[in-house]
Amino acid sequence: MVRQFLPLNGLRAFEASARHLSFTRAAIELCVTQAAVSQQVKGLEKRLGVALFQRLPRGLKITAEGEALLPTVSASFDQMATTLDRIEAGQVRELLFLGVVGTFAVGWLLPRLADFQRRHPFINVRVSTNNNRVDPAAEGLDFAIRFGSGSWHGTEAQRLSEAPLSALCIPKLAEDLRSPADLAGATLLRSYRTDEWSTWFAAAGVPPADQVNAGIVFDSSVAMMEAALQGLGVALAPPSMFSRHLSSGAIVQPFATTISLGSYWLTRLQSRPVTPAMRAFSDWLFAQA
């Protein structure tokens, strides 16, 4: 297919202006003058025979024609940037997009990720963290590491590890905890799963009448543990993900009781083909785990 000349400068100026709704901010991003951006957009509009923006006293308003053009232009520039990023010094780099529940990312993956990079220097890893709510298709993820039962629709899941939960707190708070029942007088920290503490109390032999289920609710164990480190209360979290805190003595586990409400899983959409980068990461991950 023979392509007509593409006005790349004009398209770049249009795309940046559409994102910022400002010629001035687009000019700052592109390291040119505001007048240059304005002229490039005018040239593109002249070529297309339509207005892409309404010029307002305080910024821009994109027109219907501009809205129709923007997704294609943005996707094309993103694709070019991704391809260029893969090519470095004659070596083709593979990209690997991971979505990882924050607790596993901080407590297990990140301390080991340098080893993967040493073994596979031409795989560029992109890590996004979440609170266990993730949409692999919408986010374009190769893998998602999740916590749960391993059952997600349209997904292939491989178990990585158990993640038993136990009471964790700073040593000062632990001084007043001689039995699990003493937690009735402590501030309890928990995730959005409402049955965690009641399940733990039952496993510890605390009668239902003596159990306390109220507490501060967090959307991630990482944030919960930060609160525990600051002495806000007793967290119910997986000790295996906070081994550094336990080893340093900043956090202690006052009772041996643990409960298991799920595992960590490496998941992939069944519709997503396995790339060499994905295979390399999966092999490395399970060798480490």
Automatic annotation (TrEMBL):
The lineage of its organism: Bacteria, Pseudomonadati, Pseudomonadota, Alphaproteobacteria, Hyphomicrobiales. Pfam families: HTH_1 (PF00126), LysR_substrate (PF03466). Keywords: Activator, DNA-binding, Transcription, Transcription regulation. Gene3D superfamilies: Periplasmic binding protein-like II, Winged helix-like DNA-binding domain superfamily/Winged helix DNA-binding domain. This is LysR family transcriptional regulator. Belongs to the LysR transcriptional regulatory family. It comes from Rhizobium croatiense. CDD domains: PBP2_LTTR_beta_lactamase. Residues 6-63 form the HTH lysR-type domain.
